[in-house]
Amino acid sequence: SVPTTELPPGTSRKQTDEEDMGFSYEQLSIFGKLRKVHRCGPFSMYQSLLHQWKHLSPLKVAEKVKLFFLHYGENRHKMTVITPAYHAENYSADDNRYDLRQFLYPRWELQFRCIDNLATQVQAHHHPS
User: Fold this and answer.
1) Helices 109-126 and 58-75: crossing angle, nearest 10°?
2) DSSP states of 72-108 as a string?
3) How much of the chain, in percent, has pLDDT values that exceed 90?
4) How far is CA 20 from its chain centroid?
5) Burial 39-63, CB ≥16 within 10 A → b, else e
6) Is the pLDDT of residue 4 over 70?
7) Which residue, 62, 110, 113, 126, is most buried by CB atoms nearer than 10 A?
8) What are the distances in angstroms from CA 84 to CA 7, 79, 116?
């Protein structure tokens, strides 16, 4: 069964979790590995995904990375209180005993501006108008 979002009672429209989040579960897995295992921030993640996701435009990759980090920054503090659990990924939440990453983040303004500048340059280079 496809995971669906919680919609108000009486709503007949079906919406999947992936539509609601703006990411597929496969994309979230890639974001998670780049963030925790490879320790990527917004700009380095964008640079990495730009080469991996050639099926998306540079501007679309930028949009997804920025959306991920907006949600990540808003919700990172919640991961500091997760109880130990089994996870099948090597970046699992575990009990966070050895997770020394910060959990309060700024708004990423500088990083997002750098991503936008690079995305515009790459888009213009690969898709001149």
Assistant:
1) 160
2) HHHHGGGGGGPPP---SSTT--TT-TT--S-S-----
3) 40
4) 14
5) ebebbebbbbbbeebeeeebeebbb
6) no
7) 62
8) 30, 11, 38
What residues pair up with 20 in beta bridges, in sequence order? none
Question: Contact at 8 Å (CB) between 20 and 5?
Answer: yes
Question: How far apart are alpha carbons 78 and 72 in whole angstroms?
Answer: 10
Q: Rounded to two decimals, what is the model's pTM?
A: 0.69
Q: For 83-127, write each residue's pLDDT tens digit.
A: 555 555 556 555 555 555 666 677 889 999 999 999 999 999 876
**In the predicted model, what is the mean pLDDT of the chain?**
79
